[in-house]
Amino acid sequence: MTKRAIIIDDERLARSELKKLLQDHPEIEVIAEAANANEGIEKIGNMAPDLIFLDIQMPGKTGFDLLTELDRLPQVIFTTAYDEYALKAFEVNALDYLLKPVEPRRLADALHKLEYITEEKETIGTALSPQAVNRGILGENDQVFVKDGERCWFVKLNEIRLFESVGNYAKVFFSTHKPLILKSLNALEERLDEKVFFRANRKHIVNLRMIERVEPYFNGGLLLEIKGGEKIEVSRRQAVKFKEMMSL
Q1: Minimal CA–CA distance to 21: which of 88, 77, 74?
Q2: pLDDT exceeds cutoff 90 at 15
Q3: How far apart are CA 73 and CA 92, in angstroms?
Q4: What is the pLDDT of residues 69-105, one digit of tens each?
Q5: In the chain, where does DSSP find H-type helix?
Q6: Which of 7, 28, 88, 170 gives a 20 to 30 Å CA spacing to 219?
Q7: Using an 8 Å Cβ cutoff, are 230 and 238 in contact?
Q8: pLDDT averaged over the chain?
Q9: Distance of CA 8 to the CA centre of its chain
Q10: Cα–Cα distance measured from residue 124 to residue 119, given in angstroms and rounded to the nearest whole number
Q11: Over 70: is that where the pLDDT of 121 sits?
């Protein structure tokens, strides 16, 4: 299956070289180029590529800044001349990391990873209805990019056990990490699949698949124990909805 790609790099020569190398990979169709992050964000939004080749250091916004502004992430292969960024790139779990000038063999290795991940995702599948997809709902196998200070991660939604409101920010709980993102809980709730993520109260959205115990609580509410050990109260009003959803 052909994958549609956008090359985002401020160096015209680097874009041209990469396009030339990709001619040996007919499974990749380069549908657009962008010379900076803002242009890249616009083209990704309009064209919904499967893959982006992304430079990290660009005038204005960096490649990492670009990723924080995307709701739904394509697969990402970083391309950069600065190997000092290698550690950070791998920490965010990008598909791959190519040093410029890009070597044909390394490019082939990166695209092989893409093929493997695509097959894995198609096997897992997604349970989203067409209506949910049309509303821009994120499936549990979709990735989101989380940046907190100098640390960055790609995280699958099904790995996130909890979102907690902190003013205009939301704290994201996954693995041992709890970074903050600049999104309100209401904005997140609109994009999350309600079959997986449940608004327990004013401050918390929980991943239903991460609940280990449910106990009765004060005033007809419930207390949820989440896999990471967090205990989250479900308000009385939401407890009624929760019991209906879980057939309790």
Answers
A1: 77
A2: yes
A3: 13
A4: 887 888 999 998 877 666 565 566 677 889 899 999 9
A5: 12-22, 37-47, 63-68, 86-91, 104-124, 130-134, 185-191, 236-246
A6: 170
A7: no
A8: 87
A9: 18
A10: 9
A11: no
Residues in the chain, total: 248
Query: Alpha-carbon distance 150 to 147, whole Å?
Result: 7
Contacts of 57 (CB under 8 A, 6+ apart): 63, 80, 81, 82, 85
Q: Which among 102, 81, 141 has a CA at the least distance from the CA of 20?
A: 102
pLDDT at 162 over 90: yes
What does the pLDDT look like over 207-221, one tens digit per residue? 999 999 999 998 889
User: In the prediction, which pLDDT does 119 show?
Assistant: 60
Token pair for 19? 């396009």
Average pLDDT score over residue span 186-212: 95
**Residue 72 to residue 52: CA distance in whole angstroms:** 12
* Burial degree of 65 (CB within 10 A; 0-12, 13-18, 19+): middle
Q: Which residue has the tokens 């950069």?
A: 80
DSSP codes of every residue in 228-241: TS-EEEEPHHHHHH
The answer to whether 244 and 195 are in contact (CB under 8 A) is no
**Site of tokens 């902190």:** 166
216: alpha, beta or left, given left = phi > 0 and alpha = psi -120 to 50? beta
Strand-pair partners of 181: 170
